[in-house]
Design a protein that fits this description.
- With 162 residues, the protein is of the alpha+beta class.
- The chain has one domain (12-158): Peptide Deformylase (Alpha-Beta Complex).
- Helix content is 18%, strand content 29%.
- Strands 1-2-3-6-7 form a five-stranded antiparallel β-sheet. The chain has a three-stranded antiparallel β-sheet with strand order 4-5-8.
- The longest helix has 16 residues, at 26-41.
- The protein binds zinc ion.
- Residues 89-91, 131, 135 line the site of zinc ion.
Length: 162
Amino acid sequence: MAQLKIRTEHDPALRKKSRPVTEITPRILTLLDDMLETMRLADGVGLAAPQVGVLRRIVVIEVTPDEVLELINPKIVSQSGEMTGVEGCLSVPGKQGIVKRPSFVRVEALDRNGVLQTYEGTEMLARCFCHEIDHLDGILYTDKADKILYPDENGEYEDSKA
Ligand code: ZN
């Protein structure tokens, strides 16, 4: 496995629409492995391929340790509710934001074997599905945030009072 470079906010790759994966090649499997390693080394819970400069519809998520979700061509097929919470992004260092997201989402995606899987998420996982799938369409959470938070001198982010 290899650690990949994570692109940050003003990199054009983050603003492009990623293309679907048409065939799960050994290269795609290596990319999934490398994305997982890169995400873990960066202490993240989700990573989308455009964040490492690959414009393909691929996401890895690990909201619960050792429960790795590998999503190829993910789609939100249903969603409901609304929740407001704090969100950050490995591609937007030094900021957090208050973002509204659905409180429940159902996602369909191919796994690494090319089998269509359905996932349901609430709370952190729902937020993560939405955030990562947005990356595949060139959308950053900062586009949707009601408020952007910056750390104070101790590196702590202010509580949301907005
Ligand atoms: Zn992100």
